[in-house]
Amino acid sequence: MQIGTKNSSDFGVSFGPSLRLGVLGGGQLGRMMIQSAVDFDVRVEVMDPSSEAPCRHLTPRFVQGDLQNAADVVSFGTGLDVITIEIEHVSVDGLRQLEAQGVRVIPKPDHLAIIQDKGKQKAFFAENDIPTAPFELVSGAAHVQQMGLPIVQKMRKGGYDGKGVVVLKSKADLNKAFDVPSVLEHAVDIEKELSVIVARNSSGEIRCFPVVESVFDPVANLVDYLIAPAAITPQQSQDAENLARRIADAMDFEGLLAVEFFLNREGNLLVNEIAPRTHNSGHHTIEANRTSQFEQHLRAVLDLPLGSTEALFPASAMVNLVGSSDAHGTPIYSGLDAALNAPGIHPHLYGKSSVKPFRKMGHVTITGQSRTEVVKSVMQIREQLAVNGKV
Ligand code: ADP
Predict the structure, then answer these.
(1) Do residues 138 and 208 both lie within one domain?
(2) Which atom of ligand 1 is nearest to the CA of 162?
(3) Do the domain assignments include residue 3?
(4) pLDDT, position 1
(5) Amino acid 87: pLDDT
(6) In a domain? residue 285
(7) pLDDT tens sequence across 75-121
(8) Can you give the pLDDT at residue 8?
(9) d(CA 384, CA 381)
(10) Cα–Cα dist 299/132, whole Å
């Protein structure tokens, strides 16, 4: 069998155990992708800077290398059939060289080049009439008052999980400003944070997962839990899905794209940012939807028909399991017995060899018959489960 819905002549690799897929990044996202790839009998090879990466023992070929170094990326990817990512901070130049060698690279290097730079992302939204918070680009700290205060300053490159984002409310905060090329954004009065994961293959086939709602922990500045479907109007859901499709189509995107939105207090959707990969806000789909985001990513990467994204339960939620505020050393997971004693609870521990305060160590998916039921389970699980450490 040949891979590919339409362009199999461009991508004429035999679909079978000899197919080699490389993943740049060997964290939890790569790990869950490997779980899915087993069902497709695809051999996944992994490169990560850490010798202790969660994928380390789950791949027939693990290469320790610098994801941002073109030579490392080329050396890892040479001879592979397909290469994809689980983190966007990788060498675009290295991926371009692999593409020139005939390796299928998804997402496309040109798309990564836009998405890696929050300034280029915002410019793309503006050029394509995608609603987003008003912004300006500045070269460093000297210009952060250009739009007035309060302002949100974001490093153009290298930020993740809220690192590289600072809210400057008044002059007293100015010493917190980053002195690097940045995006300044008006602070949005946020009602809800939402996301839509959209997949698009090279035939232009496109599918969205239902909108999810993220609830943040203000102390850790990480998603505390997320819930699907989001409690928004059917029109707002439709609008969010349409925006996600419009972005994927406007880019001619191939692969999986997570689109993060703010719903402001006036009820308007603003696109915050996009990530060209599987995303924390799609983890529940492993248990809660007909096709998981990881399988969907594989299907898009291998140019197979996309799977149904339909939800299997009226409600589902995902709780991140993060290290306790004073946790260090080898992780110790407590409370699993009690948590697993309820129906519809599924744990995913990421296999990290050491825990740190607020480090993402795993997640738990909860499926149920109503939003009230799953929120109740979320609260229970947060009481029951903890990740401490042993030094
Ligand atoms: P990262 O790429 O590190 O996840 P984000 O751009 O998603 O960074 O910002 C992290 C968080 O900061 C958001 O989830 C949101 O809570 C807050 N934030 C970001 N931009 C704005 C904004 N313009 N107005 C208000 N809050 C914001």
Answers:
(1) no
(2) 3
(3) no
(4) 43
(5) 96
(6) yes
(7) 999 999 999 999 999 999 999 999 999 999 999 999 999 999 999 99
(8) 41
(9) 5
(10) 30
CA 259 to centroid of ligand 1, rounded, Å: 13
- CB atoms near residue 129 (< 10 Å): 9
Same domain, 87 and 64: yes
Using CB distances shorter than 6 Å, the residues near ligand 1 are 133, 152, 154, 159-162, 164-165, 185, 187-188, 190, 193, 216, 260, 272-273
Cα(162) to ligand 1 centroid in Å equals: 6
Whether residue 206 is found in the same domain as residue 170: no
Domain that holds residue 98: 20-115
If pLDDT is split at 50, 70 and 90, which confidence band does 5 have?
very low
230 CA to middle of ligand 1, Å?
A: 19
pLDDT digits (tens, 9 = 90+) for 165-186: 999 999 999 999 999 999 999 9
Q: Tell me, what's the pLDDT at 118?
A: 97
Q: Quote the number of domains for the chain.
A: 3
Q: What is the mean pLDDT of residues 49-68?
A: 97
Ligand 1 midpoint to CA 193 (Å):
9
Atom of ligand 1 nearest to the CA of 160: 3
142 in helix, strand or coil? helix
Which of 272, 273, 280, 358 has most ligand 1 atoms within 8 Å of its beta carbon, as the pocket-test mutant? 272
Range 373-388 average pLDDT: 94
Mean predicted lDDT score pLDDT of the chain: 93
The number of the ligand 1 atom at minimal distance from the alpha carbon of 190 is: 25
- The residue out of 115, 146, 173 marking a domain boundary is 115
Secondary structure of residue 262 in the 3-state scheme: strand
Q: For the chain, where are the E strands, in sequence order?
A: 20-24, 43-48, 62-64, 82-85, 104-105, 135-138, 151-155, 165-168, 182-186, 190-200, 206-208, 212-217, 222-228, 255-264, 269-275, 315-322, 330-334, 345-349, 360-368, 386-390
Tokens (6 digits) for 64: 């320790």
